[in-house]
Amino acid sequence: MTDELTVSVLGTGIMGAAMARNLARAGHTVRAWNRTRAKADPLAADGAHVAGTPAEAVRDADVVLTVLHDGAAALDVMRRAAPALRPGTAWVQSTTVGLEDVADLAAFAREHGLVFYDAPVLGTREPAEAGRLTVLAAGPAQGRDGVAPVFEAIGARTVWTGEDGAAGSATRLKLVANSWVLAATAATGEVLALAEALDVDPHDFFDLVAGGPLDMGYLRAKARLVLEGRLSPAQFAVDTAAKDARLIVRAGEAKGVRLDVAAAGAARLERAAAQGHGDEDMAAAYFASFGDRPTA
Fold it and tell me: What's the predicted TM-score (pTM) here?
């Protein structure tokens, strides 16, 4: 296999579209598909072929990259692509899914002779667009040279977590990382909401913690999105964050661990979505602190 690949990108939302563009810029042939075609059509200007069906997208692909909403969506789309899948094709599965989903997806790969890589990514819109994601990957050592050009095009770093993609070691690490991201985001929103309620200038809080162990660049970045009204376009949407939070809670429950912060975070995100913020950045969970009051 040469370094110039034919890559099928199934799912062109915030992350998938950015990945597809970077793959095309790296010189790969990109065939993109999205359930809502209008979200994929702009990729044609970047040199991607926009396919009408998953089967059309994966035909003759060296690598299939899935970046869909959840495990059920990934399995459904791959079933639709199945008639055109070639045995031996590498499947890079980058959808953030639950632990139980990894086994189902890996079983599908075995049934169709695909080489399965459990490969979620860490990062949001800006690093995705810059090709600076961190790829968490598990899969067979033999064959990694075939997917390395894909990881190099979409990411700045690849962290290999194991040789058995079906074991889900990359997904497990992603859920742990996301638990921290979501907890920090929720805490940021509550700090801003409490400051508003107590008539405290949030910048006084930032000055108070500046340079110390309580300071954090992520806190300031998410707070700026709220304070400056820059919640759209989303770096990582409320709806997707809520889905990931529920995956984290279920993963903990499956192992006998109660994750109160994750559960509360999921509820906050779902409340913000119900208020109309589902497509905004997950920092918009801030609005969940104010019950049903108007947030526009």
Answer: 0.94
